[in-house]
Design goal:
Elements (H helix, E strand, L loop, with lengths): L1 H20 L35 H11 L3 E3 L2 E7 L12 H16 L5 E6 L6 H21 L7 E5 L12 H7 L1 E6 L14 E2 L1
Parallel strand pairs: 3-4
Antiparallel strand pairs: 1-2, 2-5, 3-5, 4-6
Length: 203
């Protein structure tokens, strides 16, 4: 009889211990903190957005001229007006070139310290004096049109360089046509020019 009671007591003790193992209380009688769910973890902060520096005035001016077809070189930004944009007597420009000059005026108004050199060129078929005079006439046509549209005359120099600095072959018709041109050479936004070519007749 005593052994049956002893076995019953042991069984009751085991049931009690099993119940304690599933209790929120630890062995020492302290409450165990529940593990927080994964969703409650704070997300990592996004990295700060660092603004890019604003483009410098020279960069903005160069971008505006590049949009008009200017090319960057040792002298700075250079825009070329080809022979076909002039009338036969060199005194007028075609409407396409006139519209382009109006856009150049807007750029020069936005950068009032910028200056301009207008270089006229010819092919090599005529005599040197006549070529220089003809190239100056073309350069001056461009200069006067810019002045008429509001650009201060002190900001523009016109030069006649004749057959100097050919970009095409004077032995061919196509090459001679390339050489007959007017180049607009722009300073930077503060009026500083890069390396310039030799000067001839000036207007």
């Amino acid at each position: 009889m005593r052994s049956i009671l002893s076995m019953t007591a042991c069984a009751a003790m085991l049931v009690s211990l099993a119940a304690c193992s599933h209790s929120p209380w630890g062995a020492a009688g302290t409450v165990q903190a529940p593990t927080p769910p994964a969703a409650a973890t704070k997300p990592a902060a996004a990295p700060p957005i660092i603004p890019l520096p604003a483009p410098a005035p020279d960069e903005r001016m160069a971008a505006a001229l590049d949009h008009l077809g200017a090319k960057r070189g040792p002298r700075g930004e250079v825009l070329t007006i080809p022979d076909r944009d002039f009338t036969h007597d060199h005194t007028k420009l075609a409407s396409v070139a006139t519209d382009e000059l109006k856009q150049i005026v807007r750029v020069l108004r936005e950068y009032p310290k910028a200056d301009l050199i207008v270089d006229g060129y010819t092919d090599k078929r005529g005599n040197e004096h006549r070529d220089e005079q003809m190239s100056l006439e073309r350069a001056d046509v461009v200069k006067q049109m810019l002045i008429a549209d509001g650009v201060d005359s002190t900001r523009i120099s016109a030069r006649g360089l004749g057959p100097a600095d050919p970009i095409g072959d004077n032995a061919t018709k196509a090459g001679r046509e390339e050489n007959r041109r007017v180049e607009l050479v722009f300073s930077d936004s503060d009026g500083n020019f890069g390396a310039t070519k030799g000067q001839s007749k000036t207007g």
